Amino acid sequence: MADAFLQALAVVLFVFTTWLFGAVARRLSAPALVGEVVAGMVLGPKGLDAVPHDEAFALIGAVGLALLVLEGGLHVELATLRRVGKVAFAVALSGTVLPLATAWAALALLPAFRSREGLLCGTALSSTAIGMAAQLMGDLGVLDAELGQVVVTAAMFDDVLSLCLLAMVSKGLGDGAFALFLPLLSSAAFIFATAALAYKTPEWLGALRQRRQFTDAAWRDGLLALALGLCVALSAAAHFAKSTHLLGAFMAGVSLAAVDGGAAAETFDDRVGPVSAWTSRVFFASIGFVVPVGRLFSAPALLYGALLAFLAVGSKVVTGVFDWERRYEVGWAMVGRGELGFVMATETFKRGETSSLAFSITVWALLVATLVSPIVLRRLLPAPPPARAAADEDVGALKAEVARLRRDLAAARAEDAAMARVIRRLSPPKGRRPSRDLAAEPVVVEPPDEAPIFGCSGLY
Asked: Are 260 and 271 in contact (CB under 8 A)?
């Protein structure tokens, strides 16, 4: 019994410390994930070994990662793609290729690494997380501006490309070109198929709501259940299609992003958001479990890590040239990394495809890039003044009101459709006259037999 209590106490201390490290990182203008990874490094099996059943926390973290990716898909605004899609795609494509190519070329020239390790380390450095980009743009008060839309859309494209690379990495780099490109081809086919689903889903659900009368609570419950169920189904489909299950989770969110003015994302944030926030903290801490802390602070890891961090930062900054007027802001906004980079680095290290030194310098590069991006951006884009902050709050409230009005309009349309069906059922068939001409009969109002109530006898 005492052992059970001590283990429970250790679990509470681990969760609290993870939250505390993340909160401290935020106070220092750094993303919370930096502190959460450090918490896992300190308390995990490679550090103080103070976390009981760390494998169970790794499983919880895997669930948190899927919810995090699903949430990112739900917040994709497809309407912005037509406006900033070309520039954003150019930024995302170059931001995926350049880190991969530069890291691969640099590490392949160093005797401490194999060419295959350079490719895998570069792959891990290629991603920019859409969730982090959106949060950073929101903190700086430019999420609804052109800059914020370009950055968030580019991060969305970047995530899709990185998920395709993750499919290749998670399935292993097999021998031969077919084994190498099979995950990429299956991921591309999966994206096209689920994109068609995402295009038709709002239409199908809109027609369903017009045919059936749903209360607002029942409609939101249904959207949430559909989002979670679709996440499980598409994740399994992507896995068995030789892609990565995270691509299925992301496309499940995209499929429901445009339904009812973003009602699915709003419901997810309200009801699952707090749970997702804690499970994602556990995920980033579980990344720290596998980091070889002793090797991380060795001289080779520090030296090569600094080199790789320079390449990780520089290869993203230059992508801003595709939006020349805001080249510095866009470039530095794309520097921050997220969950997918850590996942790819961890996957390859666990399978023994990268050495502890290669894994350590990749972690250094990811942490440094994620740390410096918001610091530099805050200097390029100072915090909005109080009037601007108040205006942003008003914009958020206005968007919420617009979403509510859209839901009310959809409910009114459903009621109109139901009333029309009732009228059609009560109306006589075409070509037949009713048996009695009701319109021709006079309407006679008989006075009541008894005296009216409330002294209204003057009515008759």
From this structure: no
**Contact criterion met (CB below 8 Å) for 216 and 411:** yes
Please give the Cα distance from 134 to 153 (Å, whole number): 9
Burial 40-68 (b: 16+ CB within 10 A, else e): bbbbbebbeeebbebeebbebbbebbbbb
- Is this model's pTM higher than 0.90 or not? no
Report the C-alpha gap between 60 and 67 in whole angstroms. Answer: 11
| Separation of alpha carbons 68 and 267, rounded Å | 15
Helix (H, G, I), strand (E, B) or coil at 96: helix
Report the distance separating Cα 316 and Cα 127, nearest Å: 10
pLDDT at 74: 86
Give how far the C-alpha of residue 181 lies from the chain's centroid of Cα atoms, to the nearest Å: 26
At position 128, the amino acid (one-letter code) is T
Give residue-wise pLDDT tens across range 174-224.
Answer: 555 566 677 778 888 888 888 888 888 888 888 888 888 788 888 889 999
**Contact call for residues 10 and 51 (beta carbons, < 8 A):** yes
Query: Could you give the CA distance from residue 151 to residue 138 in angstroms, rounded to a whole number?
Result: 11
Q: Between the CA of residue 453 and those of 399, 432, 446, what are the distances in Å?
A: 50, 44, 16
Q: Tell me the CATH architecture of domain 6-383.
A: Up-down Bundle (1.20)
| Of 92, 91, 94, 13, residue with least CA distance to 48 | 13
| Residue pLDDT, tens place only, 228-264 | 999 999 999 988 887 888 888 888 988 898 888 888 8
Tokens 């008003």, located at residue = 394
Quote the DSSP letter at residue 231: H
355: phi then psi, degrees, rounded to nearest 5: -80, 170
Longest CA span, the chain = 108
CA distance linking residue 427 with residue 406, whole number of Å: 31
Whether 14 and 6 have beta carbons less than 8 Å apart is answered as: no
The dihedral over CA atoms of 406, 410, 416, 421, expressed in degrees to the nearest 10, equals 170
Q: How far is CA 75 from CA 78, 190, 194, 272, in A?
A: 9, 20, 16, 14
How far apart CA 353 and CA 299 sit, in angstroms, is 22
Domain ranges (residues) in the chain: 6-383
Residue 312's nearest CA partner among 111, 122, 58 is 122
Q: Supply angle C-alpha 196, 234, 70, rounded to 5.
A: 95
- DSSP, res 440: G
- Show the tokens assigned to 48: 């103080």
- Count of all residues that appear for the chain in the document: 460
Best CA proximity match to 414, nearest among 251, 227, 242, 213: 213
Which residues make Cβ contacts (< 8 Å) with residue 307, sequence separation at least 6?
A: 106, 361
